[in-house]
Amino acid sequence: MIDTLSSLGIFFFAALLEITGGYLIWRWLKHHQGKIFGLVGGLILFSYGIVMTFQPENFGKVYAAYGGFFVISSLLWGYWIDKKKPDKFEIIGSIVVLIGIAVMFYFPR
After folding, report:
1. Considering the entire predicted model, what is its pTM?
2. Alpha helix stretches (DSSP H) within the chain
3. What pLDDT score was predicted for residue 16?
4. Are the beta carbons of 79 and 38 closer than 8 angstroms?
5. Which of 105, 65, 71, 77 lies closest to 91 in space, CA to CA?
6. What's the CA angle centered on 104, arms 2 and 88, to 5 degrees?
7. Using a CB cutoff of 8 Å and minimum separation of 24, what contacts does 55-63 make?
8. Tell me: the pLDDT tens digits for 20-74?
């Protein structure tokens, strides 16, 4: 159980890093904000790549499962930061993704 909780924490922390880094680069390029946004965003994205190595599984399996966490985390980011409430199809899709993650990454073999 601790391993599962640790793994979930790593996935969500990695998603926070990737989305934050991407958001800062987005602000730098799309909204013409200072280059510091791009630099800090790039460093945060680099950190995301390091954090993902803490997962106990192989690269392909980790990144496949992470894709689902990214979907969920991106919708949460949109809700809290961009103030965009997910519609019912985004919520249904997120549930499908969560089921897929659970089957792929956490079901016993």
Report:
1. 0.85
2. 2-30, 35-51, 59-80, 88-101
3. 96
4. no
5. 71
6. 100
7. 55/7, 55/10, 55/11, 56/3, 56/7, 57/105, 61/104, 61/105
8. 999 999 999 999 999 999 999 999 999 999 999 999 888 998 999 999 999 999 9
